[in-house]
Design brief:
Strand order of the largest sheet: 7-10-11-5-4-3-12
Largest sheet: 7 strands, antiparallel
Distance between the termini: 16 Å
Oligomer: single chain
Strand content: 35-45%
Order of helices and strands: EEEEEHEEEEEHHEHEH
Helix content: 10-25%
Length: 145
């Protein structure tokens, strides 16, 4: 796992850097999404997690739900189009999971994608994702070390 300016960027994820969203294709064909370590550092202590309900359809670039911290309320932007098939009930019950483990226990929702192959092509992964975040954080003068 790479670390950029104090934030973890696992190379096994697909990222939409500008929206601070990540995605992974699961073995069952669903896509797990969440927010990046950069996003949780910017938000600080997350106090409320409100994903859209299972069964709802979300469009790429639209909100899959919201997060709230002491200073901020904002959307979790979906990096793919599809139907929400599962929400992270553990994160709803304990919002700090998103701060503590944004790529693991702090995932947001699982989506059954309509076009993973097509939509994932616009996301970055591996070393390209690490470099994209390095550039973004330099441009925004962000450092969490």
């Amino acid at each position: 796992m790479a670390t950029v300016r104090g934030c973890n960027i696992p190379e096994d994820r697909y990222y939409w850097v500008e929206k601070h969203a990540w995605a992974t294709l699961e073995a069952d064909g669903t896509v797990k999404i969440g927010i990046t370590d950069v996003a949780q550092n910017l938000a600080k202590g997350i106090v409320n997690v409100t994903p859209k309900e299972a069964g709802r359809t979300v469009q790429k670039g639209k909100s899959a739900g919201t997060l709230e911290s002491g200073k901020w309320v904002g959307p979790v932007t979906s990096p793919v189009t599809g139907e929400i098939v599962e929400v992270n009930e553990a994160a709803k019950a304990k919002p700090s999971l998103i701060n503590e483990d944004p790529y693991g226990a702090g995932w947001f929702v699982k989506i059954k994608p309509t076009d993973w192959a097509g939509e994932s092509a616009s996301l970055v992964t591996g070393e390209a994702a690490v470099e994209a975040y390095r550039k973004f954080m330099e441009e925004q003068n962000l450092n969490f070390e």
